[in-house]
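Hi R.,

As promised, here are both runs. First protein below:
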Amino acid sequence: MAPKKKGGGKLSRSEVVTIRLDLKLRFAAELVARKQRRTLSSFIEWAIERTVREEVVGPSFSENAGDTAYVAMANIWDVEEPDRFIKFAEQYPELLNFDEERLFKLIKNTPYFERNSKKKSDANTSGALRYSDRFWLKRIRDNWELLNKIIAGEESKEALSELPEHIEIPF
């Protein structure tokens, strides 16, 4: 006999986040939550989603000018963290923190991850190369843990020298 399920499904649709709120802000949030007949956590999630849909993250000087965080999320999101990182780094490089800049530079400077040495343009990028076209994403995925350990100082860059520099592709 199968074990009896405990109440409710176990869908991983959300993540628990601990936040600190000023007492007055928390009180105000509770007032609005009551007005909207929501729990405080439901109200906070709604408020974040609303802000994400309105807040512009693409700088005015880039091809992503005017993109809201919601549009950016739709363009970048991938279930694979390395793929998501490459998309993020190529589309919104000005939003990378220092360690992310170092990680992206490490990937760009490692020939094993480069798809080919001939840089081709994407019609959607006004002649600029899209990194997702430039890189073997599977190779980055396969070495993601190593790359992050190098950035964290837990591994030496020398570990990358064990990767072959060029591999012939059979097609």
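And here is the second one, sequence first, then its structure tokens:
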Amino acid sequence: MGLSEAEKTYVLHGVEENLRVDGRDREEYRPMELETDVVSHAFGSARLRLANTDVLVAVKIEVDAPFPERPYEGKLEFFVDCSFSSMITWVLNKMKPQMASSPMNSHMASKKMLAKERTIKMISMDIGLPSSSANATPNFEGRGGEVLAAEISNCLSSAYCSSLSFDLTKLCILQGKKCWKLYVDILILECGGNLFDAISIAVKVALRNTQVPRVKCIDMDGNNVEISVCHDMFDCQRLNVENAPVMVTVCKIGDKCIVDPDVAEEQCSVGSVVVAVSGNRFSTVLQTGMGSLHPLTLVDCLKMGHKVGQKLDEAVKEVLKESLRGGDVGFIK
């Protein structure tokens, strides 16, 4: 439902006075809640809630052949889905006793009951209710959801394509023969604004939560390679996401720029820039929305995105450290 002109004026005046409708200043994020290991049948998973925005990320891995032009690297593929029916299908698939593409099927099968319990718990938290599903938002109607999903997926692929952001060589098993392929599945459970930022953080946490099994080559005859995957769940390695990018959406409202826009603020925005920050550098920049930005305004957006992105990245890293010490829930404030 769109805002009235009076409501838009109220939002605009609040931004100009550096006192937004919910009490935040222009560079302030809403509190986030992060949870890891939410999907038992995935190799890594994370769920992030940012106010009314709720996203779930699960990582699957399989053995594949590397690209001929990149024999030293593994593969990373993103898939974004915001349809309610696909979300239900995905959750039900996680209740199956085995994953066809998983090299650790025997261990995953032993967790069948645990997976069901987690799934029931997730559904009880209103994940599966149509009233809280992403396609209740007008942006997801018709082909709008497909376009947005493709835009997010392409932005993530661009942000992670550089070795300075994510080292794909760590996914190499045998040069030119075998590598790990990571499938990062992203489900938008509810859209309450600022999807890019929420998804980028959830992806980074899910990748850090991913456990990659150790492998060894047991037979090699020409181009035919046979490898053995270690089935010990404790004999695995974690992915290094130290420089994995986080995205900051900077919205132009009136003459000012803000970060972490809610749904109402997004409707008042004349243009937005998504800035992916990796360490102290930009990994990608994407302009969204129908409006255009003056070059000087674009520079201001980039400066704000870089400044806030570095602070956000440090906060995420602190939560990751706590998670590795045994906790599975963290808060970013």
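A quick note on the second one: The radius of gyration is 21 Å. Let me know what you think.

Best,
J.
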